[in-house]
Amino acid sequence: MSTERIADAVKFAYWVPNVSGGLVTSTIEQRTGWDYEYNKKLAQTAENNGFEYALSQVRYEASYGAEFQHESTSFSLALLLATERLKVIAAVHPGLWQPAVLAKLGATADHLSNGRFAVNVVSGWFKDEFTHLGEPWLEHDERYRRSAEFLQVLRKIWTEDDVDFRGDFYRIHDFTLKPKPLNTPERPNPELFQGGNSSAAQENAGRYSDWYFSNGKDFAGVTEQLDNLRRVARDHQREVKFGLNGFIIARDTEKEARDTLREIIEKANKPAVEGFKGAVQQAGNSTGDKKGMWADSTFEDLVQYNDGFKTQLIGTPEQVAERIVAYRRRGVDLILGGFLHFQEDIEYFGARVLPLVRELEAAESNDQQLVASH
């Protein structure tokens, strides 16, 4: 169990399906669209069903079942303008973006959305997206060193004037951004997220980002990552929040939920999953400690791109809610949910699962207060 800060209430985000093929590489029916009209309605549904964040994916060309892709920053801004409260996180690749240019875009998006734009810095797993665009494909830890500089430059440009930065990857000379984002000293906007599973990813997040995004993990995996992340953050007098990916299958009965999972895996698009496996596992296994993303993922795990089945948010509303609260107890601040049929599954989650989560959180809080008062 966590011995450090535990969130009063876990937050919820969802994967924006701005890429075709849904969130599982399977021929199972997915009543989910990748077009803007579907996603506009979905974003409005999500913010009215307890979701505070949405994460727009980044893919630049067809790959592994994702034939079509909408660009993440422009799609995020469109969703922000269609909603009132939802915070939308755009995934971006250092190496394909110049950080000062993204900082300018982010400041504008922040003003247009009244402070609801955020960025997820993705160091990159898909080599072809770089080489097909004539960009170098760096070794794993070098990609994370570049991301570290990228995060630092974004933060400095958003919060300082006359910025100078002399790094190995980026050079900024006496640059001042105006207008800056709608930030406060306590929590500069936009929020910065850093994804990854490796020690290099945790080092970056602990030093430079507001949030760390993890692939799907069981309780032991989450505890290991949180311990390391918090150690790094403490060493730099910082605190970082933790987001966990999970594919959510909540149904009226456990059998129905498990049958859905079984059908997803049985109908997996095997060539696409195997191709994805070959592309991503070199990333995890290329790290010194062999703990990078997807390093230990099985074929079944990879049917969901980001190991979402491992989190085991599968079952009745009661079972899913209890497991979410158990993750919160271990220090998870946010659940990033993927779904099979996004529109209807998010409505079901908001009506049937989220109220139970809040009830369980309130009960635990009351118990803690009683213990403290004796």
UniProtKB/TrEMBL annotation:
The keyword Signal does not apply. This is Dimethylsulfone monooxygenase SfnG. It is an enzyme of class 1 (oxidoreductase). Keywords: Flavoprotein, FMN, Monooxygenase, Oxidoreductase. Residues 11-333 form the Luciferase-like domain. It comes from Rhodococcus navarretei. Residues 181-201 are annotated as: Disordered. InterPro entries: DMSO2_SphG (IPR024014), Luciferase-like_dom (IPR011251), Luciferase-like_sf (IPR036661), SsuD_RutA_monooxygenase (IPR050172). One of its GO terms (molecular function) is monooxygenase activity. The keyword Metal-binding does not apply. It comes from the Bacteria. Its EC number is 1.14.14.35.
